[in-house]
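re: ur question from earlier - yeah i can do the single chain one, its not a big deal. heres the input i used so u can compare w yours
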Amino acid sequence: SAGPPFCVVGSDNGYLLLKAATIIEMVAMDKCPSQLPQKDIIVQHLSLNSNDDNFLAIRVLCRNTRREIARLRTDHITHLHCVMTALGCTGPGLPPDKIPRSSIPWDRITLISNDMVIQNRTLQELEDAHFLGSPATSSQACIQLEAKQRRYSEELQLHSECCIPDACPLTSLSVNPICTPSRCNEFRPPLGPPVFVVTNVGHRSYSHMISQNPSSYDEHARSPKNSKYGIHTHKNNRRNAAVFKQSCRDPALIKETAIRALLKRHAYTLQANGLSGCDGAPGQKGHNGTHGHTGPYEAGSHRPSTDGGPGECGGSGERGKNGTDACDVILSLSGDSEQLQVSGTCQFIAQLGGENSEEVLFVNCRGGDGGNGGRGGDGGHGGDGKPCSRGDNSPGEVGGLEGRGGNGGDGGLGGRGGDGGHAGCGGLCVLHTVNEALFILVEVDCRGGMGGKAGLGGLGGNGGQGATGYVDRGSGDLECDGYVISNYVCFPGHAGMRRRHGAGGIGGHTGPDGGILWVVDSPQGECLYSAGTRYDATVTTVRAVAVTDDGIIEPNECIAVSCISVTNSGGLPLPLGAVCSIPSTETVKFELIKFDLPTIQPGQTFEIPVTYYGRIFDQPPPNVPGPFVSSAEFHPRIEMLGRPFEKSFLQQTLVVQYPIKTAFLRCRENLGRGEVDVLEIGLQNISGLPYGDCPGSGGTVGLQIHLDARLIPVGSSSVSTTYSVTYDPSIRDSLYVRVHEILPGKTMKVEIAVQMESCAELFDQCHWEADLYLRDKLIEYNFGKMCVSSTYHPSLADVLFITSQYTTQKEFIFWRHLLENMGASVDFWDIQRYNGLSLDSQTGLPHPVSWKGRYEGKMILFPHCDLEVFAPNDIIHHFHGPSAEGEVLEDLNSSLVLFLHPSSPKLPNQSKHHDHADRIVQYHLGLAGPRVDIPQEEYSGSHFFSPGSFFTSTTPYHKWEKKRLKRLEEEVPSQSAFVLQRQPFLQKTGCLTWSYGNADIRRSPLLRSCKLLVVDGSGYKDEDEKLFSSNSDIPLASNFGQTYLATMYGLPLMCKLKLIKTLPEDQRPRTTALTFHLPNGMTLSQAELAAICVVHEIADEVLGCKGTSGRMVMFADDLANNVNAYIPSGQIVHCMLALLDKELVIRKKSLHNFRAHQSISGIKRSISQVLQVLCNAGIIGSADTLPFPALKVLLNNNAFYFPHQHVHSLEDSQY
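and the output i got, formated as tokens:
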């Protein structure tokens, strides 16, 4: 498992809990404890000898008693590092004392829920304490922010205009007279309240003043306001049937009128509404049933106990009271908009002037609501049965316990819910006036009331519980409270039934609506005309265009609003006195123009013969990249006596944008040092006028290009008549483009050639910016970037380093320093620059200058590995060369280290012993491996029971596959075999025969002696760079230590030998001496680490079963030819040979092949020769020197894999 090796219980109780599932062994002295005390413990290493089985084991002792608590053993040093870190150990190879507890790698430690609560509480307390103690810091931050805003504001004033040097022939960008309006210049709206916003855009910072966000008008935005004065009337008027028949009784119109009335602010309210009914009382809860009694004692035993009594039914809820009807109201209106005189049903004067100039008189003739029905009562619970009791018998006697338990009583029924009360009728409201304009001051609600809600039924009672009893089976004892009951039979009583819930009530009826009648009288009191609805002004159409109509409305441009059509949607004529205007909004400033509407008959439409002029608010320079697109909103307003008609608010939204915008910015994503690229900027004219210096232009256009200091302009790439480019050498990073003409609806392209500086850092991002100016105003800016990529120059380098779009500058510097520390020469191949690795993705053909075939016997290092661009045949040819096409493979001693990033695509993990990185590489190589033909009838087995039953596995084909894989590996031991994919389909084909489906079994196309290492991870973390640059003592269990070890393993053999021997000063690699610490306190130098990797490489050669020992011969020859260089490292060579002898013993046990044994014999002969050379040179091994640990002990086997070396057997298989 790749998960954490243990779980930690928090320090609150002072204990650590170790989950032994991933720990190889945990042994206690007396009893294996589940907890280890976190305090007062001592951790000791059992052995520092790598030949000992306790090399990766520790002992935990009690500090006070020195008594051993437990022993722990792991499988590699990374798990040991995690265990010791959790136990609080510090020192070399572990977190030092100065590192706080929070910096421990908690990604390898899983907290249980209890400790998570404690940890979160502690963090919250720390955050609260920090917050309480931070006012001074916050004040300083505010002062610094204000200072930054002032500085950015000054920079804004400096950069708000296009600063054109003297060398630039651009003329002043003045406004063309054709687009200068002759009207509306006497007013210019100011900008909204300035808000300073500091925005980081690439390598430059801007601070701009932006207006507050505009708010659109909502016709229902005003919340209802309680009236200041209330007039009550509840006269029982007798309704006039003729008048009621003439009134408006359309439910939709009455509802619309009521909603309009409720949304307005009320200065006076005439309360003629009905009263709402009271809610019904809830029903009473039923009584619970009585409990049973113990049966009488007769003849030495108890009789059956009595049953529990039933619960009572719940009471019904009470019906809600009916609402009362509203009163009919007849009112006569006179006066003016400030003092409205009301007479008729009641007489008063409504003061509607001054602070009440926008409020109205509200006549409430709504019917009363019905009361809600009461809830039904809950039923009573049934009584419990009584169990039998022991009686008065003495201990040892059982007769007193005999008897049946009583049954539980049934629960009571729930009560019925009460009915809702009926609602009252709405009232009739008749309004008379001589001046029909006064109707705008009155709003009416004459809807009927809402019926009361039905009451809910009560809950049914629960049944009582049955009691237990015992009946004698004949003989034996019964033990209960000290008595024997083993031969008695339990005879419990039955539980009572739960009764159903009560039924719900019936809702009340909604009251019928009333009526409204608007009557216009003559001065003599005669009725001139009447209607059920008032007049209403509805705006149906509005036309808005720019004064300079080029199809675009841009900021600070004048607009003309005309063709406003007004329709009287009411039943009365719209009288004189209605005024139409367009109020200014937060986005448009309008001239104060008012037009008095004439009388408009019902249903008639009138078009206002006036044009309203406004100006769009100007916009500050942009603070975000990209074209500016916004909106401007306004609406007409028609009012009478200061009260608006809501239907006249026809919202208009205009798209505001500039006529010129940037269509595209193009450049290469990667550019090598000294290479030239062309920057392409597209300018698009979306208006109906030409722009530039041409006649009839809508304005001049300029383009300012800011370049990174590493991008050197070399001039325009082509000669164009539509623009000209100027460059001031004193301002190196700026170019100026003067646009001569952009036709309407067309797009022009500006091309600028730049060259990458030769000393630019690889994989650094170079930004460039294009600022677009229209009439001397910055209207848009955009950014482009390109990466400084490496250029492939084939050489005799030791390593081919493959980069991609995921490689950052920090990561590249990390890998460069790491390889330089090992003394390896490097060539670079960038996937993004060359459009792939194996093939050019754009052409589908091989690259003209390719890396293939140039690194035989060398190393390919591929962080952020993407197997989709790395063809499996190229991997095979890297290891075996031309022999990959034949039957006999030849090992070229090449190496390949792949770091599979977590974002790499994963295959379905069909293995329970291997992780994704291992499986995906195995699958990728298997696509090019030789396929083993398996007849479908052979992929079957005999089973007495059906697959999936208790005696047969659901996957019986796994056992068949393990046998076949073992047979294939016995036939060709130099290549492993695996199941690439399968299509299981279990089907019975005979009496006891089952077919398993289809399976695709492949041989690995690589020899098991090849140096292929797969790492699950990116190989780089941010803390690695700090660890590498600031410290020469590296914990080998850290991410950097593991990455360093994996990279050293992949180096060519001769490169590793250079790190072991001492070379002359001119040939010695310029490396920093690094020391690697193990968690158990052991220390390994860089030379010792290289020696361990050499031993593993030499020992793995026997897995190829070729009968040769070429790698050992290379080492022996190099030592014989440079014996003086190996003299300072003589003890390292002795330890190295001892480890090699141990590794050969391990591989000899796993191989039963003559050629493998022949290779082992050849290596041992070479070992004897090397020892003889060392003896002649006076180098004798010391008995006190500790042996080296094996490579697989130092590597984390949960993240580092050798996918081509898997051996499948019956005992341990992939499946």
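The chain has 18 helices and 60 strands. not sure if urs matches, ping me
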